[in-house]
Description:
The structure holds 3 protein chains of 3 kinds.
Chain A: E1 2-13, E2 16-27, E3 31-35, H1 42-50, E4 57-62, E5 65-66, H2 72-77, E6 80-82, H3 95-101, H4 108-112, H5 119-131, H6 146-158, E7 164-168, H7 176-191, E8 195-199, H8 203-209, E9 212-217, E10 220-225, H9 227-232, H10 234-242
Helix pairs in contact in A: 3-6, 5-6
Chain B: H1 2-32, H2 39-57, H3 61-84, H4 91-114, H5 124-127, E1 129-132, E2 135-138, H6 139-161, H7 163-173, H8 175-180, H9 185-210, H10 218-232, H11 237-257, H12 260-277
Helix pairs in contact in B: 1-6, 1-7, 1-9, 1-10, 1-11, 2-3, 2-4, 2-9, 2-10, 3-9, 6-7, 6-9, 7-9, 10-11, 10-12, 11-12
Chain C: H1 8-26, H2 30-56, H3 63-80, H4 88-111, H5 116-136, H6 138-141, E1 147-148, H7 164-167, H8 169-190, H9 193-210, H10 215-241, E2 243-244, H11 246-249, H12 252-265, H13 272-290, H14 294-311, H15 316-331, H16 353-357, H17 362-368
Antiparallel strand pairs in C: 1-2
The complex binds adenosine-5'-triphosphate and magnesium ion.
Amino acid sequence: MTILEVRNASKAFGGIHALNDCSISVEAGKITGLIGPNGSGKTTLFNVITGYEKVDAGEVHYDGRTITNATPNKVFAMGIGRTFQLTRIFPRLSVLENMHVSAQRHSLRGLLGGWSRSNERQRALELLEFVGIAALKDAQAGNLSYGQKKLLEFAFILIAEPKVILLDEPAGGVNPTMINHLQSRIQELNKQGITFLIVEHNMEFIMQLCDTVTVMHRGTKIAEGTPANVRQNPAVLEAYLGD
Amino acid sequence: MELIIDAIITGILTGGVYALMASGLTLVFGVMEIINIAQGAFVILGAYLSYALAQHFHIDLFLGLLITMPVMFVLGVLIQVLFIRPLKRDRTMLSILVTFAVALIIEGVLTILFTANIVTLKAPYITQSFRIGNFYLSYIYVYGFLLSVVLLAGLYLLLYRTKFGQSVRASMLNRTAAQLIGIDVERVSALTFGIGVALTAAGGMAFGATTAFNPGSSYDLISRLLTIIVLGGMGSLSGALIASLGMLIIENVTAVVWSPTWSSTVFFVLLVVILILRPQGLLGKLEGRKQ
Amino acid sequence: MITARKYGKPVGLLALLGVAIAFPLVFSDPTYTTIAVFALIFASAASGWNIFAGYTGYIALGHAAYFGIGAYALAIICQRYNIPGGWEPIYLIPLCGLIAGVFAIPLGAIALRTRRHTFIVVTIATFFIVQLMAFNLRGLTNGSTGLDMPIPFQWGAGYQGGNQSIYNLPFYFTALALTIVALAVSWFIRHSKYGLGLLAIRDDEDRARGLGVRTGSSKLSAFVISAIFAGMAGALFAYFIGSVQPQFDFDPLFDLSIALMTFLGGIGTRAGPILGALVLEFAQQWLTLYFTQDGLYLILYGVLFLVVILLLPRGVIPSLQELWAKGRARGRIGPLVLPVKTPVMSAGTTSPPTATRMTGQAGETAHEEVPR
Ligand SMILES: Nc1ncnc2c1ncn2[C@@H]1O[C@H](COP(=O)(O)OP(=O)(O)OP(=O)(O)O)[C@@H](O)[C@H]1O
Ligand SMILES: [Mg+2]
């Protein structure tokens, strides 16, 4: 079953066609890889799905609903969480405070209430434990290493219990031990039923983790299939080598 | 009707002078992302410099600019290097406080040197006027306007026809990227600040020649200049030009058809209206960030 | 940023409160108590300002408008309803704050349509609009002549047998109460989910909104809360001075002063604005007392500004906190060292340049990277 689908999306920045009639779909409960050379439009596709950019044309469907050009908070509330290529955490808040930001409450009582003595805190601590940075809970987030920031961003997405998680280069600039760790976390969450769409340049990471891989080039999809299939696809090789 | 046309002409002529003063402000914002609250004080300082040269050395107001503009340029560079460059964190806010401190010091020095009494600049062409059709125009308004046109044209050439101008524009587009391609952004910033202040010297002379002033006149000026650059879109030179002319015309017309008391209010109310319709100003871009 | 402060704190706060209450009784010379009243009025205003500007990172420079509105509200109400002197006007101060808050709703909403830099300038402009109104709406404000306040306390200065040393006391304690309320509200907000949202806005507004923080209403409500404090400070100020005039109650210096006070103490911290206000207001009053020549005072005040900013750009409290944290880290394992259990993680050599520059002022840095 398809849970997330982009249909014929186009997006141009000035003269650059970042997305060009691009269609992709993501199967529920699977881990889908999204690869492509630099500048092929992967991040733009994420932005379009999560509402950070508006499409010029095309549609985005999620869980039977149309979410084309919905605002980022709506998309997030509907259960699509994402991380950014250059992590976007709140650098001057502590790690634990970062966790609480994304667990927003909208009742007046919830807003005026504290956040330090609740189940929410318990859950935040568990998730930090889960990704492996619980020891840093009181550190200022801006002082974390690059890899730790990525884990933090991953953890604070999880607190909102998303159904689909989009990761933009989770392994970029991160050392090998941590990459393995991250892989195991993703697999565990996937077993619990969370769908993943992962952009990554680290092929090994993608090949080991993903059920299917979609390849983008010049703003559009050029191939799709199992990791093994895609690896042998001449069009993909050409895309990577041709430029 | 004639009154209105007269008001429009005055609006255009004084608008040119405001454009000159505002261009320094918006340029500095564009390059450094700082708001120079002292711009109003620099205008008044420029006016007093011209006043002093005229009073004590009998130097013509326009010729005197050959002295005051370089002096103010050096002053601007010094202020940037000494007080603004050292700011590393919270640059925007701290630069406001720093330039405000500079404004206070300028106001204090001027008060001690010239007292708080209101003065006017004197020259034959300030009082004389000429006739076109049914309209009388003071020479000084026309000269002030021409001066602004010449200097703004010079600024345009500097920005679009020189290597230095290229670095300035690159720094305006993206400070970090400019640094990466080897532009010495700090040097560009210091020179830009100097240029902004030097232009203000000329603006101050033209302002002082048409308006009586004292050291405290800077508050009213800075509020207007800030309004103009927001209206034009912060960091947009052409926006500042259009906004200056537009605002001054509207202000002058309001003074004639309604009342001078409310003409300044109209100035600010327009700002509010335009912001409701177009938060980024006329030619500006929205702030904010995506990835 | 917040680290364990356990038992010392309540005791310390009580001691401070004791000192604050004892101060006017010990130093009963009206010269001192007058300065103290001004200092506390500014402390409450700065503390309120910090709730908006410090927490959200949006610098508002038009709060003098709300200060002035609060002042005029009190003057106009007293005149229209023939309020006598004494305590009644003091009871009206919260109402005046609310009136200022009501004005802040539309003005704040308009200004908040813009982001960061433009916002600063727009708030300055809204201040000038309101000031012009005070000059021009003569029927209501009596133009540049201003309005007189009722005479506060019959036992006070200027009266036969009036006791100079107790005249200031009601003002002192009212100002102290306002400051305490402002501090309490800051504290409460800082520890609420709402406050966390404000701090998230300061660090990365778009990201915060993407995570469900209601950025628009959060910013506006914080703006209004801070305007209410400015309004209350203005009302008390006007009653203390005895009259309102556009040039004094709508003072362009006001915002820059409270901004400097907040920065001096430490922006975004709870006690910083109050500390900064006390220090700076005493310094400023001292300057006015001893350097009466018009221009000289301005120069010295300007120099004071420069010294504070160039020597203490981070503010007193954050600097102290940093020293304290360093002292602690020396004793034990630093807070950033991971225990053995978790895998070793480090930035490695491949991390992009931003990652290394993110420390300390990451918010600022991140902002600069946007092509405008
Ligand atoms: N906000 C923007 N303004 C202008 N151009 C943009 C913007 N965002 C993306 N682009 C351009 O769109 C194209 C696609 O960019 P995108 O970031 O989506 O690529 P990507 O596949 O994520 O690349 P990478 O692997 O390097 O992250 C690029 O040419 C990029 O320069
Ligand atoms: Mg990308």
